[in-house]
Every structure is written in structure tokens, then in C-alpha cells.
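Why do we care about 3D structure at all? Because function follows from shape, and shape follows, mostly, from sequence. That is the central idea of this module. The next example makes it concrete: a single protein chain, its amino acid sequence, and then its structure expressed as C-alpha cells.
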Amino acid sequence: VVRHAKWIAGFAAMLLAACQSVPPAPPRSSAPVYDLIVRHGMVYDGTGAAPMRADVGVRGARIVAVGDLSQARAAHETDALGLAVAPGFINMLSWAPDALFVDGRSMSDIKQGVTLEVFGEGESLGPLTPTMRETDQKQQGDLKHAITWSGFGEGMQALVAKGISPNIASFVGATTLRIHEVGYADRAPNTQELATMQALTRTAMREGALGVGSSLIYAPAFYAKTDELIAIAKAAGEFGGSYISHMRSEGPRLLESLDELIRIASEAGVHGEVYHFKAAGRDNWPKQAQAIAKIERARARGLDISANMYVYTAGATGLDAAMPPWVQEGGLDAWIARLKDAKTRQRVIREMNTPTDQWENLRLAAGKPENVLLVAFKNPKLKPLTGKTLADVAKLRGKSPAETAIDLVIEDGSRVGTVYFLMSEDNVKQAVALPWMTFDSDEGSFAPEGAFLESRPHPRAYGNFARVLGKYVREEKAATLADAIRRLTSLPAKNLKLRDRGELKAGAFADLVIFDPATIADHATYDHPQQYATGVRDVFVNGVQVLKNGEHTGAMPGQFVRGPGWQENATSPVAANASTMQP
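And the structure:
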């Protein structure tokens, strides 16, 4: 018995020691640890699929899990119960660079869920010559910043280095390329100039450009012939780039201009896209259905053609779009000098008042001067005219609308920011429903404070994306929510050939928007455009929260999102001071 007792005691001691050497069962908190978990939301993954209730787990800048993460823990958690969780929205045409250099928060777009701003309608941040830098600096309006770079990639990196909340991407501007080599002259580039424009395009592609963007109603882009555009689009196509265009006409020659875009894309072998798709001017409204049919026939033939749009019946540009391109040859100073010449002035007035299909006259397309709203001046003496129509100012001055427009350009030393009422609401609703249509603001991203109050933007700056989801999805039923989100996210990312953007899935960058589909709405109007949209609660860019409960956090995690041809350490053989690009 004693012997057995000793044996039992020894065995018990051994068992106790063994038990003490085994680690305790892992507590619940040792399940996978995330930096962020968004819980309980209705997840719209960006593909157009039906939403599902799920959690989203993020580590660093990327999504690592979508599903049931109830057993997981994270450093930061947010409850999205009753809300939609989607990939961040992509603004296919943004004029935000100047605004972002002044205020990197990107308030009016961030509050709508925009996490990627795409630049490059004709103009880009490079490549620049010293003369171009000097001219651009001189012609800045209320939003002033130093221009210290030359190369395309340098300009984009300079904006990131300043500190910005959204990501940025850009096409290289066909106008920028043309000015670099040809200046503002109305002539074709010679063989060497065109070869250099192609070389600059290739360099920009290596530095991260998305392709080539043109704006063909404006001088000097108006002077470019189709063959020139095909040549530079081909150079971009060598790197997988696209061709995207504000076409030569959105009015009298809409269909012919669309034929040109399709030809350029086809011969260059690239994706082609129409900027801010529309039929401008009452006489041209029936042409929208024909333009849609033309694009769909091209797509049926296997061509990669698409379009983007803003969801308003007015566009915004300048008084240059009301004057013939020939008078603008040589740039702003030469244009103003010609307008001061009495004989030239009379010719310009005559042409401004004469219908034509040879150039895009938005003053006549608007129908009457009451439909031309003046919204941005440089000259402090003219700023009291902000918000008045061209008809108002013409009556005030006792002159004709055409004379008044000419005088305003001379007095302001600028193209004068202008809103033109041009489109049909029925056409807008028709275009919103198209499965290949994406969306843009065609505006900057502002805040109702400081220098931004010196002029009035188009209300699309504060409301375009919320208007898509509120007015056209929820109220008009022009599209389903899942498909509208697809066309705000994965479709533009696919068209631009962006890697790991536009979908809510493991491995993708954590650009997220959490919003209420039942309340998201725009509030900006033409009379009071500086009013934020509502309904977006939280926004994350590269895994960092920039909007929390509708308020900006101050975070600036935005990065340069590079296109398909990006090569690390790309340098320019022709543009001075081209920088080494970092991933």
C-alpha cells in the first residue's frame, strides 16, 4: 500500500508539472488581429453583385478579409449596421490639382465618398518647359501655388508630397504635349516635334500616366488633326494606356466627333472614352440616342469604347467656348490683344452671333444670354458680377451680349469662368442608365471657406456623386444601387487598368465609403453651390480614416495611383529635371 501510495504521489507530481508546462488555451482576443474591422454593413463589392451583410477586415493599406469576423478583434472597429459599405468612388474627370495644392483635404469630394481624383482633360501637371511654368504661374487665379517641377511624374509627386486626403491619377494632356512642342500656333507639328511629343508620352506612361487626354473644342487643342492624336495615342498604347477626349463637338457635329474618337481608339489599338457625354444645345438633343447607338455598335464590333458624365443640365467652362478658335491663336495675351483691335472685334462679334458647325459656340448652344451664368473672375473689380448672367451684365452695361463677353475677357485677363445651360433632363436620365457609363464632376474639390469663396463653382463640385445615388438611383430609379456603385468603382478602375482598386475584396487597397442609401443627397444649387452633400458617414483612403461621422479627420494618406505602364526609376530623355519615381 505504501509503495502504491508513493507511486500515485509521484505520478500526480509529474502530471501537475506537465500540466504547468502546457500553455493555457488561447483567449478570444488572440484570433486574427486587424488594424480595422468594419462590422455589420451591407457590403456592395463594386462588381454589381447583390449586397451581403458582412464584416471587412483591413491590415495596413489593404483589405485582407470580407465575411464573418465576429471572432476577430481589431485596433479600430466601426459599426456600419444599416449602412452600405462600398469601395471608394472614382471621379473620372477632376479639376482638383489647384484646389488640392491650397487645401489637401478635398472636402467637397471626400464628403461624397470620392477616394480617387483623375486628372488630365487636355492639360496635365507636366511635362512643362520653363516658359510653360512661367505662363501657368502668371495665369493662376484665386488659388495660387508654386510650380517647381517639369516632368509629369514630378508634378504628381509634388502634389502628394504637399499632403492630400484622396488618391490621385492622371492622363498626360494632349494640349500640354502640343504646347510643349508647338506652342499656341495653328499648325501641325513637324516630324521632329511629333516624335518628341510621342517620346514625352512614353515617358509620362513610364512615370504612371493612364494614357492621353484631349480637349478639342479649345485652342490650341482645336488645331490638332486626327493623325496627330492617333500618333500620341499609339505611343500611350504601347504601355496599355487609353485615349480619352472632350470631343471636337458635343453639339452640331456630335456624331462626326464621336466617329473621330472611335477611329483614334481603333487605329491606336487602345481603350477610348468620351469625357462628360452629352448632347449640347436644344437642336442637338435628339442626337444623344444616335450617339448611344453608335457607341453600342462599336462595342458590339469588339472596340473598347465607353463614356463618363456629370448629372446636371448645365456645363461649366469659360467664355473662350463662346469665341472662335482662330482669335485665340498664340495664347491668352495674343487673344486679348486681338479683341482690342476694332476690326477684329467686329469680326469676332459677327461670328459669335452666327450659327456654325465649324467650332463649338456654347453661347448660341445655350439659346439665350440668360442661360449663360458668370461664376469666376480674377479681377477684384469684376467679382461683384459673380453669379449674374451674361444678359444681366449686358443690360447693366448697355451693350450686346457678344460685346459684353469680349469686354469681360479683356478686363479680367482670363477666360472668365462660365456656366452654360445646355442639356435635356430626359437625356441625363437616359445616360445615367447606360451600363458602360461612369461618372465625373468635371470640377475641383473645394471647401466653403477662404480663397474658395472668391468664385462660384458649378454645383457638381459639391453634389455630383451624391446626386447619382440620391436623385437618380433612389428617387428616379434610373439604375440599381449595386450597378451604380459598380460604375462608380470597378468599371472605371477596369477601364483605367488600375491594379487592386475599385473592388471590395481581399488584396485590394482599403479605399472604403460607408453611407446611408436612404438619405444620401446633394444640396448644392446654381444660386448656392457651396453646400456639402450629406449621407456619407465614413471614408477610408488606403486604410486610413479621412472622414469620421461626416467630419474630416485631418488625415492626408492620398497617393499617386499609377497607370499600367509605370516603371520604377523612369526618367525623361527630353523633359528637363524628370524625377526618379518611387512606388
